[in-house]
Design brief:
Length: 336
């Protein structure tokens, strides 16, 4: 079989990485379906991908995707195999208790292919697979010219531009930009050696990390690792939830003024705090505005003052991520 060497190579690479033999598709099924451990991040309704993921991924092109898949199958304009693969993948991912639209990103090329079939069929006559060898001149010979068509190339292009470009510009240039802008600010401060270490008191993975900082600065964020056993789902400790429920108590428990570090020291840079472990009080803290208001007085008592603020979004469905992104700092203690 052609794929056997590739599969064998993947198994060997996984063996080197995990230090044991694993088969990723089975591990995916075991973790997400059999054990249901993905529900640690929240449980989704069974049809989530159908009425949430698909509209988000394809936006205003979704009608063309559906129409293209229909005529490809019903009229033989294109093969149905990619559609079968996409439906099968969506079904498998729907078995997982926790769903996100980003899980279906690999299906975008398949959808766009069928959208192209749809658009071409609306603006002209397409040959079927059986007549594909005929010239386009013969295939369109029977088409009657029209002075005005609803689905002309111009109308479709204008429709797609009007429904996608404004949203794309807003979502890429305005919406939730604060979580990226703050990293540019911290990078600049770190280059000037004004940062010792950084703590992100935000829901886990709220901002980019070293991919934007590019400086040997110790950093940590509130963790949210899932449990590895189904029996631990109800009792597994989540540092991000612990902080959200009692932020002041959390800071009293984990911040230890006796811990010290040296700027850029590899032993500190490579330190990975365990969830809930006591750690040094960092020189900089990054929070969402909604949380900063809750613990403003405690931050002042700990010696922190606001040094920067970045607009993040006009709206957010997550109450924990509302408002600007705010940076607090305290006087540096490391010698420069």
């Amino acid at each position: 079989m052609v794929g056997t060497p590739a599969i064998a190579s993947m198994l060997v690479i996984d063996r080197l990485g995990y230090k044991r033999w694993v088969f990723p598709p089975y591990q995916f099924y075991l973790f997400n379906v059999h054990e249901g451990l993905a529900t640690w991040f929240g449980e989704s309704p069974p049809l989530y991908h159908l009425y949430v993921s698909m509209p988000i991924l394809f936006t205003s092109m979704l009608p063309f995707v559906l129409h293209g898949a229909y005529i490809a199958i019903a009229r033989g304009y294109a093969t149905a195999q990619p559609a079968v693969v996409a439906v099968a993948a969506m079904f498998v991912f729907s078995l997982v208790g926790h769903m996100e639209y980003r899980f279906l990103y690999p299906l975008l090329p398949i959808g766009f292919m069928y959208a192209a079939v749809s658009i071409n069929s609306l603006v002209g006559t397409l040959p079927s697979l059986e007549t594909g060898r005929r010239s386009s001149r013969d295939a369109t010979a029977g088409a009657k010219p029209k002075r005005w068509r609803l689905w002309s190339v111009r109308n479709i292009v204008v429709y797609l531009l009007m429904t996608n470009v404004p949203a794309s510009l807003y979502l890429n240039l305005v919406h939730q930009r604060g979580v990226v802008d703050v990293m540019a600010y911290l990078r600049s401060e770190a280059q000037d050696r004004l940062v010792e270490d950084i703590g992100f008191l935000m829901p886990c993975h709220s901002t980019p990390y070293y991919s934007h900082l590019h400086q040997p600065i110790p950093m940590w964020f509130l963790s949210c690792e899932p449990p590895l056993e189904k029996s631990e789902l109800d009792t597994h400790y989540c540092e991000a939830d612990d902080f959200e429920l009692d932020p002041v108590g959390f800071m009293h428990r984990v911040f230890d003024n006796s811990k010290s570090s040296v700027y850029g020291a590899l032993d500190v840079l490579n330190l990975r705090y365990k969830p809930g472990q006591t750690r040094r009080k960092p020189s900089h803290l990054v929070l969402y505005e909604c949380m900063a208001k809750r613990i403003q007085s405690e931050l002042t008592l700990l010696g922190y003052s606001e040094c920067a603020r970045f607009f993040n979004t006009h709206f957010n469905g997550d109450a924990r991520r509302k408002g600007d992104v705010v940076v607090y700092r305290r006087p540096l203690t490391a010698a420069k």
